[in-house]
Design goal:
Radius of gyration: 31 Å
Order of helices and strands: HHEHEHEEEEEEEHEEHEHHHHHH
Number of helices: 12
Largest sheet: 8 strands, mixed
Distance between the termini: 38 Å
Low-confidence stretches: 402-406
């Protein structure tokens, strides 16, 4: 029994009849969809990364040795291993400055490649008694009493562990808790309380290994985090800290006070330029795709005048001919969009950690809900772009009479 001739069937048959042209159009649509879908995920993930670092820093001021702001930025944003030191006594000095509510410090060590990772990692020692930053992001509450060894180790979300253990210098250490993902360099860090860090440092020397740095966490520190008391301004407190330092025994040490708000604002401004480039690239790709599709659809009409004339003889009206053109465009747009979204998903989602490392920017993968929304948006835009590109061809069809001549 022969199948009834339908507009969808005619459109599908024409798509199958020109496999090379169809493949080229699908590739073009898929490419534009993949670029847009990937860009939306990238932009959303970068914005999530910014929010992550804003909330993860948790301090109003950061104090580092003079000239090390760039290295501090590298640790926070991309997890780039680094080390720098100043006297730990500065922490007590800052704690007594008027307007300071909370103070804690961290000590940076950079390891050689170890079993947990394929690259050198940043090991950060923190004071468990004064900390108001790191433990807040642990997935469960932790303390030294929870461990049989008395150790407190917190692993960033990107750190690979085996059976919840990490090995440094031939000695295994239990991970007390994982940190929530932030999309910042802090996801690539191992945090250890100071007694544990000192133990790891001793193990390294005992085994003949070593850290890139040889700091002493009992007398040195790398960065001091300060939270302001209510009613005090960052600018005023910065001046008071520098004045207190100049009048103390640590006057010879040069420090740099980084205001978190200013630091983040500068970074956001830099990132905005990058995002503008991404948006411009998406627009350019889509404009090229729509124009190319319009030209191809128009050229295909010239090849099919005989086909449309026969359909007119058989009683097909102009409205039906236009529907055939739009149906072909809809089929191509749907298939191309699906292929592009699927391909981009295979590249971005499984390899988001590698992408984060390569772009060296805060990157927290967009949520599944957002990804699904982006997929729907890209699918709709791809479909609409194909339909828009076919409008001119559909209008031309309305002007042809039975024998292929214009009205």
């Amino acid at each position: 029994m022969e199948k009834a001739l339908t507009l969808t069937g005619l459109a599908s048959a024409n798509i199958r009849r020109k496999p090379f042209r169809t493949a080229a159009l699908l590739a073009l649509i898929a490419l534009s969809a993949a670029v847009l879908f990937g860009s939306l995920i990238l932009v959303s993930s970068l914005k999530c990364g910014i929010k992550g670092i804003q909330s993860r820093i948790g301090a109003d001021l950061m104090i580092v040795p003079d000239g090390y702001e760039a290295k501090m930025e590298g640790v926070l944003l991309s997890g780039q291993p680094s080390y720098f030191y100043m006297s730990k006594g500065i922490e007590d000095l800052v704690r007594n400055v008027e307007g300071v509510q909370l103070v804690t410090s961290q000590f940076y060590l950079t390891s050689l490649s170890e079993s947990c990772c394929d690259f050198p990692i940043q090991i950060i020692g923190f004071d468990s008694n004064t900390d108001f930053i790191v433990k807040n992001w642990a997935r469960k509450k932790v303390s030294a009493s929870d461990s049989s060894t008395g150790e407190v180790l917190l692993a960033g979300s990107n750190i690979t562990t085996e059976k919840n253990k990490v090995t440094f210098f031939a000695k295994a250490h239990d991970i007390s808790a994982r940190l929530e993902k932030s999309g910042t360099g802090m996801d690539n860090v191992i945090y250890a309380d100071l007694p544990t860090l000192q133990k790891m440092f001793s193990d390294a020397k005992e085994k003949g290994f070593g850290f890139i740095s040889d700091g002493d966490c009992t007398s040195k520190t790398s960065v001091i985090f300060v939270r302001l008391a209510s009613g005090y301004k960052a600018d005023g407190l910065t001046l008071r800290i520098k004045s207190a330092l100049a009048e103390s025994n640590f006057a010879s040490e040069k420090i740099q006070v980084i205001q978190s708000e200013s630091f983040l604002s500068t970074f956001v401004n830099k990132l905005s330029s990058f995002l503008i480039f991404i948006y411009a690239n998406c627009i350019l790709v889509f404009v090229i795709a729509v124009l190319t599709l319009a030209v191809v659809f128009s050229m295909s009409i010239n090849e099919r005048l005989r086909e449309f004339s026969i359909l007119r003889v058989l009683g097909t009206d102009h409205s039906s001919l236009r529907k055939i053109i739009f149906t072909e465009a809809a089929i191509l747009g749907s298939l191309g969009a699906a292929i592009g979204i699927f391909t981009a998903s295979l590249v971005i989602i499984p390899f988001n950690v590698i992408i984060s490392e390569k772009i060296a920017l805060p990157f927290a993968m967009a949520s599944p809900v957002n990804i699904a929304i982006f997929a729907g948006i890209v699918f709709a835009l791809s479909l609409c772009s194909c339909l828009v590109a076919s409008v001119f061809s559909a209008v031309r069809i309305s002007k042809f009479e039975i024998y292929g001549g214009a009205k």
